[in-house]
Amino acid sequence: MRVLNEFFEIRGVGAVLLAAGLSLACAGQRVSPDQQPRANAGAQVETESDHGHHHHHTPDPATFEDAFWAGLVEEDVEQDLLPGEEATPAPHDMLAEIELDLSAELIARERSKWEEGLPAFDFPMTTNNKVMGWIDYYANRNPETFKKGLERSGQYLPMFKRIFAEAGLPRDLVYFAHVESAYKTTAYSRARAKGIFQFIAATGRRYGLRIDYWVDERSDPEKSARAAAAYLKDLYDEFGDWYLALAAYNAGEGRVRRAIRRSGSRDFWKISKSSRHLRRETRNYVPAILAATMISKNPAKYGFDVNYQDVLEYETVRVEGAADLRVLAKCAGTDFDTMRRLNPMLRRYQTPPGATTDVRVPVGAAEQTLLALADVPQKERVLYARHRVRSGDTLGKLARQYGVSVRAIQDTNRMGRSTMIRVGRTLVIPTVATRDYPGANAVAAADVIEGEAVTYRVRRGDTLSSIARRYGTSAKAIASASGIGLHSTLSIGQRLRVVPGVRSSAQAARIAQGGSPGSQPSTYVVRRGDSLWKIAQRSKTTVAKLCRLNGISANAVLRPGTRLRLR
User: In which band, very low, low, confident or very high, does the pLDDT at 540 lie, cut at 50, 70 and 90?
Assistant: First the structure.
């Protein structure tokens, strides 16, 4: 995973909502198995009824510690994917869109290859044409992508197989993770399923995973593997067939029950012949898993030369209260990237306040970490606080509360020398600990405050959609805010305007041009294809007024990027 410096500081330190309170809030989020699937449900969106109103008393902070925990609001807790949280597309989302080659020649070739030196499997394998078609897709049509998943699997397979065996499941079932996520802890689906084993929030909580503002254990390889094993065991106990159990993991047990009832069969292959009973994603899901399992058990036979990543090994320490991963990395004698890779469940790159958290450190570093952390004062264990401005707040008052300078707050939040702060705005405030971590990009701390435009520099591999997922916005909103077309080619180093958390293209463009969500902008950045008449219509003004304000003629040539006054 890439290091995303611009996301570090949104971690949001400090809230009246302590982790225990968050856990209680999460505990109320339960639905019956018939209401929705427990894992990913293809394109279905989960129907949790967990967005109730929580009322929290916020005391007037008088000390650093009081101010440190102040500021969280309900919407921070309820977001399933936070702006700035890294996410990559889940492979199973593409199952319905892939057309297989099922020609007789191809099927015969793959079947012949399959019959050469068969490995042993501990759950039933079927080698019908659909499975052979998926083997061809993975091994011949999309080998580079599949190979990357194979390489990543090296980190986790020994642990996953041990966990599945302990739960009484076939060890070879672990390979279904290849179809779910390609072994990416950051995988996120259209149905809001997350992590290597693709749990939606309600299902994850039912199987014991913690999901709140600070922690999302769907991204924890070990804990999510245990949850997946428990869920698959329940599904097998109900359906008595591994193919139906896997189909239910994807589509939900309610849908599979109905498919059995309507088709009059308990044979997955008979049920899947009709599109009336199961969606195409689920009909492809089971044969894709069988194909992935067959290749994974003998990749060399299918042309893969795999350089597996090293097995993920670690020790676990218990950390009391909040501590930044960079601080913990220093205590453990390692680097931030290693700590982030070992602890992908920590959404804010720090442990939550008011709770004890299990943190993974490199093998041999547990004792050293705890001894070093004991010498770090509480207020130096975190690098950034997140403060929601209230009536009566001033920069001077906040600077005194947090023990930093006014200028440090201004620089972190890109305020220039302005001292004006509006009630309701979230300020990212550097703590005294930042002096010891010069690599922490303070200026980027405000980059992912929702509703406030930021500038993003395009990197290799970026697309509008990938940037939008990262910032909780939409590709259309970025295009509109940046004055480019939705399908424009991006160049490395190109600057885009992004408004985190805002999906409306009109609203994003308004904010990016200097307005607030409810205000009319005072300037406009010319985009390709614009004319004075189009701009006047869009901005509810006249061509004559635009000409007068900008000292141009009605026939003036407009160049993309030119800023025009509107008011």
Answer: confident
CB contact at 8 A, 501 and 451:
yes
* Euclidean distance between CA atoms 259 and 274, whole angstroms: 10
> CA torsion angle for 118, 122, 124, 130 (degrees, to 10)?
-60
CA distances from 444 to 11, 256, 430, 455 (A): 12, 47, 11, 10
| pLDDT value of position 98 | 86
Q: Catalytic: 180? A: yes
Catalytic, out of 110, 180, 217, 222: 180
In sequence order, what DSSP letters do the residues of 325-345 get, joined into one string?
HHHHHHHHTS-HHHHHHH-TT
How wide is the angle at C-alpha 329 spanned by C-alphas 327 and 335, nearest 5°?
Answer: 125
Helices (H), 304-380: 325-332, 336-342, 366-374
Residues 254-259: contacts with CB under 8 Å, at least 24 apart = 254/33, 254/34, 254/35, 254/36, 254/37, 255/37, 255/41, 255/282
Query: Look-up: residue for tokens 């293809």?
Result: 42
What is the 8-class DSSP label of residue 557?
P
| Token reading at 348 | 């804010």
Output helix, strand, coil percentages for the chain, rounded to the nearest 5.
45, 10, 45
Run of H or E including 469: helix 464-471
From 478, 450, 469, 1, select the one nearest 189 (Cα to Cα): 469
Residue 283 tokens, joined: 């009909």
Q: pLDDT for 142-179, tens place per residue?
A: 999 999 999 999 999 999 999 999 999 999 999 999 99
User: What whole-number distance in Å separates Cα of residue 102 and Cα of residue 130?
Assistant: 7
User: pLDDT per residue over 49-82, tens digit each?
Assistant: 222 333 223 333 334 333 333 333 333 334 567 6
DSSP 379-415: GGS-SEEEEE--TT--HHHHHHHHTS-HHHHHHHTT-
CB proximity list for 155: less than 8 A, separation 6 or greater = 183, 221, 309, 310, 311, 312
What is the total residue count of the chain?
567
Residue 545 buriedness (CB in 10 A; 0-12 / 13-18 / 19+): middle
Q: Which residues contact 522 (CB under 8 A, 6 or more apart)?
A: 514, 515, 565, 566, 567
Q: What is the pLDDT of residues 386-416, one digit of tens each?
A: 788 889 999 999 888 877 788 888 877 777 7
| DSSP per-residue letters across 236-303 | HHHHS-HHHHHHHHHH-HHHHHHHHHHHT---HHHHTT-TTTS-HHHHHHHHHHHHHHHHHHSGGGGT
Residue 215: beta bridge partners?
346
Mean pLDDT of the 502-531 span: 72
Tokens of 451: 């509703």
Strands 495-498 and 384-388, how do they pair? unpaired
C-alpha span between 254 and 39 (Å, rounded): 12
Distances (CA, A) of 128 to 96, 110, 204, 370: 19, 11, 33, 55
The identity of residue 8, as a single letter, is: F
Element of type H or E holding 360 = strand 356-361
